[in-house]
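Board notes (copied after class):
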Amino acid sequence: MVLGYHIILTGYGHWLANDPRGSMSREAYAPELAALAERHFGRRAAQPPREELRAFYREAQKRLAHELLWFDTAERQALAEAFGRVVRAHRLTCYACAVLNNHAHLLLRKHRMKAEEMSAALKRAGRAALIGAGLAPAGHPVFSADCCHVYKSDVPALRTCVAYIRGNFAKHRMSEPAYDYITRYDGWPFPNRSSARREQ
């Protein structure tokens, strides 16, 4: 039984399908990028040295169809607000969200929308927000074509995912913003009623 979806949206060009670290991408990548490295589905057990990874992306950047974008403060704020509009418009329940400098994590409760539909709506809204605010060039994809969905099937997995997503702020040396569309995870679908009463 699926209880939630950990959705990872990667900025365009930041984690390619044939990234030396491995990739969860199932979509084909541009032929001009194929010669840079062999494609490996999933995270490689042996991770490449930093210099090898830097060299890969230095060469890859020359072959990308669009410029590489970074999500600085203004971009992160615009993306977070766009994601909030999607959450509210579709009545989604978002337990955690972290918009970082080249990707974003969200944990969304299961819904009539499929994970793929959720991520597509988030990407459309985020892209429109950046282009509309002049933070990305018109025609820029903003996000990679593919995205990662990790299905969560029990309460411990959801709790762990919330902690992981929130932990990204400290990992990336960022302060944790107070997104107003986050719902505190209470152990759904088996909430701890006694804890809820104590907090009221």
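Comment from the instructor: The longest strand covers residues 4-10. The chain has two domains: 4-10+70-171, 22-63.
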